[in-house]
Design goal:
- There is one protein chain.
- The protein has 2 domains: 2-204, 3-Layer(aba) Sandwich (Rossmann fold), CATH 3.40.50.150; 211-271, Helicase, Ruva Protein, domain 3 (Orthogonal Bundle), CATH 1.10.8.
- The chain is 38% helix and 18% strand.
- The protein has 12 helices and 9 strands.
- Strands 4-3-2-5-6-9-7 form a 7-stranded mixed beta sheet. Strands 1-8 form a two-stranded antiparallel ribbon.
- It starts with a helix and ends in a 5-residue tail after the last helix.
């Protein structure tokens, strides 16, 4: 046992974060507590953790959840986590999977209601959110540590919508939880981070609406930021149809995409037949 413990300690000391994998390890106990608290974890929950790193958040999740599925791409860290959490893995409380999260097929959690709680790499934030919002087996909620600027854009803190904010709001309710300064990470990134929670994830708001059409209209609407919305939409629909929709929704011909709320975007999706 002493040999294993020494090996773990040695590994912890010599491991260097890999920039290619967007690794920034969270070291703030306060931030870890805020993440877990925001997730409202109970003993029956299954948690999917993306990129557990050295397991700081994993430890907290294991204290609260019934089961944790941790997906880690870094083979060296997987080996370290196998040693660190040998007991929990043996007890099947922790399922540790070596995989790229963007390739992960949800096999370990199919048939269960689960939550995602994770400190995710900045460079694939949008791809991760899109993957799990649009998947057939959606999480019930997500609590994520992301770049502060991205968190503010998701909740439209300045009152201006974006493709990202509207895509998230179509499936769930985003909430800004707390700022996490760069100094709380090792190595420290160049920008601050923030915790966001996306609750009540479902397809309820998209009932009777084609998801494909909704996103096609959304992308077209934001295609050229300097143009008014009606001009952007002319690329995918006839002007007469657009005028009728704008009139029925009470939208000004001068309105820009960033000023249109979700419920009206959902109605505009009918422009695509």
């Amino acid at each position: 046992m002493a040999t294993i413990n020494n090996a773990i300690f040695h590994y912890r000391m010599i491991h260097r974060a890999k920039k290619s994998l967007g690794q920034n390890f969270l070291k703030s106990q306060r931030a870890l507590s805020q993440i877990v608290m925001a997730a409202d974890i109970v003993s029956t929950d299954t948690i999917l953790e993306i990129g557990p790193g050295k397991g700081a958040l994993t430890e907290r999740l294991l204290e609260k959840a019934g089961k944790v599925v941790a997906v880690e791409k870094d083979r060296e860290l997987v080996a370290y986590l196998h040693e660190k959490f040998a007991k929990e893995i043996t007890e099947k409380k922790l399922v540790l999977i070596e995989d790229d999260i963007l390739e992960f097929k949800n096999d370990a959690i199919v048939g269960t209601r689960y939550k995602i709680v994770a400190n995710i790499p900045y460079n694939i934030t949008g791809a991760i959110i899109r993957k799990f919002m649009e998947t057939k087996q959606q999480p019930g909620e997500m609590v994520l540590l992301v770049q502060k600027e991205v968190a503010e854009r998701i909740v439209a803190r300045d009152g201006k919508e974006s493709i990202l904010s509207l895509s998230v709001k179509a499936y769930g309710m985003p909430k800004y939880i707390a700022k996490v300064p760069a100094r709380d990470f090792s190595p420290a990134p160049k920008v601050d981070s923030a915790i966001i929670a996306i609750k009540n994830i479902s397809r309820d708001q998209l009932q009777g609406i084609s998801e494909k059409s909704f996103f096609e209209v959304l992308r077209a609407g934001f295609a050229h930021k300097r143009k008014v919305l009606i001009k952007n939409l002319e690329a995918i629909a006839a002007r007469d149809s657009i005028n009728m929709q704008f009139k029925s929704l009470g939208l000004s011909e001068k309105i820009r995409a960033e000023d249109v709320p979700l419920e009206k975007w959902l109605s505009l999706s009918s422009l695509i037949k």
